[in-house]
Amino acid sequence: MRHFIKRYAMLPCVSLAAISISISSAQAQDNAASTPTPVSSVDQAGAATLQDIVVTAEKRNTNIQKTPISITALNGDALQAAQIRNLTEVKSLVPAMQMGENDGYAQITIRGIGISSIVPAADSAVALNVNEVYVSRPIAQLTGLYDVGSLEALRGPQGTLYGRNATAGSINIATRRPTDTWSGYGRVTVGNYAAVNVEAAVGGPIIDDVLLVRVAGFIDKHDGFGTNIVTGNPVSDKNARGIRGTLVFNPTSSLKATIIADYYKERDNGAALHYFGPAGLINLPGNIGVPPVFVSQGGYTTTDLQDTAAGRDSKFELRTTSVTGILEWSRGAFGIKSITGYRDQNSRTLTPLDGGSTDNAFYLAGEPAHQFSEELQFHYDQGRLHLTAGLYYFKEKDASAPGVSPFKASLLAQFFGVPYTGPDYFVDFVEIGGTIRTTAKAAFGQATYEILDGLSLTAGIRYSDERKEAENNFAFNLTQPWTPSTPQPPAIVQTPQSFKSTTPKVGIQYQIDPRTMIYASYSKGFKSGGFDVTTPAPAFRPEKVTDYEGGLKTTLFDNRLRLGISGFYYDYTDLQVLQVIGTQVITANAGAARIYGGEIEFTALPTPELQLDGAVSLLHARYRSYIGPSSVQVLLPTVDFSGHRLNNAPDFSGHAGATYTWELGRGSVALRGEAEFASRFYFTPDNVDMLSQHGFVKGNAFLTYTSSQGWHATAFVRNISDIDTKVSGNVNTPVLGSPARGAVAPPRTFGLELGYKF
């Protein structure tokens, strides 16, 4: 009854309906950032047709249907209309993409390649670029999507143009730029769980055609989706805010300077982990064969996946600051662009580890990080030749401070078979911190030449050189009391490592007719090796992927059906697999994996009033050779995972949607329903059901009225059937009896939005 009241007390009158959103519409970063392109337009004969989409996936403006890359493009209006406020919700609109989080760390996976990070200093295999600046830290990749102009999700290795850590693909986000006239918007959303979201932006010229400014900000709050049934405090609540300022200076027609400053802050209980079951009792050889410690101690857990039972509350804090400077010069066919980025962050997470109501252990971590990057691009675009070349420099200092796991003295004594008497206290059991410094340099170039009418060849290459240095603060202790002021142990200095790679790309594309293109490509991706901040183990090796890909893009039926079909085959070697082993989180190199599959995306306008859209992904992602440690079969030194599925890689997934719009005298009403679906996928190489998400279908619905006067009202429901789904999972240490835990997606949410734009 408590959950029924909390979830439904604020229910507005909501029709199971939908707002018209453009799930595949974006623009060039300059134009899309200010005025998003509609999904349809009216041709000269008065018929509704699909609008052309311009993307910047090749670091130049191209039509998406003539760009030989698997791309999903979304504009800011689409994200707002779907009530999408962070990357974890974007995955429902991008085929072959899975998106989760663990302790606040983003876990992005595309086509079975990604990251399962739960600790500081780990690198993603999907490059996230915001305003063309690479965002290196996974914990800083969920800072909210507001005043966005465009989002492009590129599938497949982007090693030539995007370089480091783009093994699986790249997600490129461009925020809105100031417009030539004063414009802006504001919207207020309220919903269940006492949700309140306020977002606004305004911008325009200070000096006509010379100096323009835009300011945007948001506040996002809601109560917990669950409750810690021990303390009574909220679980997975939200309390975040951010502000961004953009200044554009056009001193001449050929020179433009842009400065973007951004600040984000979050402080809540939003990174809680939920109990999935007793991994120590899974019937496999080498399992410890005992239940979690909280069970033997008479503790309890919860039956509601959205709730937790813990002796102390989880805590999450994050602050990020960034400044981006973009300088562009062009004359005729030539152009030069400089992109300078600086990012600073700090975070703090506190995570109880038991899985149940006892308070035997917790993990306390922070991640202060500072990064600087500079990219210099050279462009030539005339006639049959399109050329992009550049130089890249990146430097980062990333630390784990603090990094500690205090455990109860009585529990450690019991586990290690040592008699214990006296008052209990928290022992400074495991110190797992340190600092990793990264310096990366690269030179790249890519050219496309139309050798015959409609037939073009592409060739590109990137040389990357990365150097990593590490200092680990690592120690075990069975008796020393822990306090918040306990100093970390002396640093263990690792031998610096350098990682070099050459990643080429070769492609061919043929424009069969103005609306149909076929393409094929060969490319490579590279993710450097490195160090784990949680252990003084030797460096792990780089991972590499070779991609053979082909596809077709066409627009049919008088521009009323847009279709994209792609197929791919990956050779994936030395893939980096992160697992919890004992009391450590380590990265191991699996020998090899085979990944192949295909995707279909479409948008259709059967009638001027009806829009259909969807995507389907078929994926075969398996380890070919991987013998390594297991977090489930902990009594075995190694386990053969060959033939198991890769993490976060469902064999079948996709989405489908339909929008119907009624034009009224002074506005319009749009009704939309959409569904996301996926087959079972696993979170660890063990491929056990407890650490997986079974197949599911989730539905969303939206209803909006848009006035010709610039205001709108939207009613929405997300996750209509209130399905609980897992988005990440791992196994804790055998010292605690190997409880399986992870993060879960939000339950049913609904609300009402009022907005106005001018």
Task: Please give the structural blueprint.
Layout (H helix, E strand, L loop, with lengths): L1 H7 L20 H4 L7 E3 L5 E3 L3 E2 L6 E2 L6 E6 H6 L5 H4 L6 E6 L2 E6 L15 E5 L2 E2 L13 E8 L13 E7 L7 E9 L3 E13 L3 E12 L3 E2 L6 E2 L2 E15 L2 E14 L5 E5 L14 H4 L18 E17 L2 E19 L9 E5 L2 E14 L2 E16 L2 E6 H7 L10 E27 L2 E22 L15 E2 L3 E17 L2 E12 L15 E14 L4 E13 L2 E6 L2 E6 L2 E16 L2 E16 L1 E2 L10 E2 L11 E13 L2 E12 L2 E2 L9 E2 L2 E12 L3 E8 L11 E2 L7 E4 L6 E9 L1
Parallel strand pairs: 8-11
Antiparallel strand pairs: 1-2, 3-4, 5-10, 6-7, 8-9, 10-11, 12-13, 12-47, 13-14, 14-17, 15-16, 17-18, 18-20, 19-46, 20-21, 21-22, 21-23, 22-25, 23-24, 24-26, 25-26, 26-27, 27-28, 27-29, 29-30, 30-31, 31-32, 32-35, 33-34, 35-36, 36-39, 37-38, 39-40, 40-43, 41-42, 43-44, 44-47, 45-46
Name the descriptors:
Maltoporin, Chain A; single chain; mainly beta; globular; 758 residues
Which structural category fits the helices and strands?
mainly beta
Strand-residue fraction? over 45%
Oligomer: single chain
Whole-number mean pLDDT: 90
In CATH terms, the superfamily is TonB-dependent receptor, beta-barrel domain
Query: Can you tell me the CATH class?
Result: Mainly Beta
Work out the helix count.
6
| Count of distinct strands | 47
Shape: globular
Give the tally of structural domains: 1
CATH topology: Maltoporin, Chain A
